[in-house]
Amino acid sequence: MGAKHESRSASTGGSGKGPAGGSTGGSKDADRRIGRRALIVGGTAAAVGTAALARDELARLWWRVPGVERPREAGAVDYGGARWVAASDENWRRADRPDDFGVDMVIVHVTQGSFASAVRAFQDPGHKAATHYIVGQDGRVTQMIRELDVAYHAGNRDYNERSVGIEHEGFVDRPQDFTDEMYAASARLTAGICARYEIPLDREHIIGHVEVPGTDHTDPGPHWDWDRYLKLVRRAATSAPSPSASKSA
């Protein structure tokens, strides 16, 4: 299951909550990003002699003004086969991915417990961690955090910001927990994510939690069949007519 805190470095277990949890460093980073963007936009607009680009940028960034939140559609999911159950606000932070942070990885986790226990943990504000999705042994998919937001799941801030995290119900030392239904459902989910963000379907971009720098986690463990999983992901990618996604906020 995800690490206890979001980390700003590669240190194990993390060192802070990030902006959603009350840290001031994240808001300063956001301010700097807005400032850089404003300068770039202003310079470009002046060079081409038009304010259209500046207007577009300001329209997209208006919700970053302190006290203003970007509108969200309650219960919206990014994957059509998912059921929405919201994680605690303490276990993720608001973002506007991929506009503010590019998404180039999917990280595979194992819950080390039941599906229900993972949902309860991610709804617990004291847990300080959650993934975007949970996939059950029966193939059901629950989304708990929107893909545009940063989930505290990898134990490494940089990896959190650039990845989508998927938990899988079971235990790393029980190969029987990784069912056909789970592999198939997770592969369809990952194929859709990769299509949305143009992520290559390979082991450099679809990785296990154990491969995140600085983590002390071992999931998905030695019984996770990576060759089988990647074949299923690629098959799902070629058979899907289009990414299963809700593009609404």
Count of separate structural domains:
1
User: CATH homologous superfamily, by name?
Assistant: Peptidoglycan recognition protein-like
Class by SSE composition: alpha/beta
Average predicted local confidence, pLDDT:
81
Q: Quote the CATH topology.
A: Lysozyme-like
The global form is globular
Per DSSP E runs of 2 or more residues, the count of β-strands stands at: 8
- What proportion of the residues form beta strands (DSSP E)? 5-15%
Main CATH class: Alpha Beta
Number of helices: 6
Low-confidence stretches: 2-41, 44-49, 243-248
Q: What is the CA-based Rg, rounded?
A: 18 Å
Order of helices and strands: HHEEEHEEEHEHEH
Main β-sheet description: 6 strands, mixed
The N- to C-terminal Cα distance equals 27 Å
By CATH, the architecture is named 3-Layer(aba) Sandwich
Order the strands across the largest sheet as they lie in space. Answer: 1-5-4-7-3-8
Helical fraction equals 25-40%
Domain N-acetylmuramoyl-L-alanine amidase: 92-221
Catalytic activity: Hydrolyzes the link between N-acetylmuramoyl residues and L-amino acid residues in certain cell-wall glycopeptides
EC number: 3.5.1.28
Keywords: Cell wall biogenesis/degradation, Hydrolase
